[in-house]
Design brief:
The protein has 131 residues and is an all-alpha fold. The chain has five helices and no strands. α2 runs antiparallel to α5 and α3 packs antiparallel against α4. The two termini are 34 Å apart.
């Protein structure tokens, strides 16, 4: 099908974009930092424990407070690292590109013009959200 072929080509072009390359590099840097990876894994585990306990009848509020404090500490430590800052910026930039692609495609479907260079139209009906 022609549409699928064009989508594959678009995927290839996105993969070759500077935004994706920077995102992939930053993601790999995060994975290579074992201390950061350990904190991220602990955060995920603590979050699961917190969510499970919070959903339980007769939950232990004291335990939830302790877990919440640990989650807050881990979150701050993770996001304070230069590697994570770089990752967040790269991810945001790649998401902006993906959003521009999606908005461009959508504008042709809905016949409502969109220009990535044009910026905000101040008409939220033409936009998926502020960036």
């Amino acid at each position: 099908m022609e549409i699928i072929e064009v989508a594959r080509k678009l995927g290839e072009l996105l993969r070759e974009s500077d935004e994706f390359k920077k995102y992939e590099e930053a993601r790999n840097d995060c994975r290579a930092d074992h201390e950061l990876e350990a904190k991220i894994n602990e955060f995920k585990i603590q979050k699961k424990v917190y969510d499970t306990e919070a959903a339980r009848e007769g939950r232990d509020e004291d335990m939830l407070a302790v877990i919440k404090q640990r989650l807050d500490t881990l979150y701050e430590e993770i996001n304070a690292t230069e590697i994570m800052k770089k990752f967040n910026i790269a991810e945001d930039n790649f998401n902006i590109l993906l959003n521009a692609v999606n908005m461009t495609i959508s504008s042709y479907i809905t016949e409502q013009p969109y220009s990535a260079e044009g910026g905000c139209t101040h008409d939220c009906s033409t936009c998926s959200g502020c960036h």
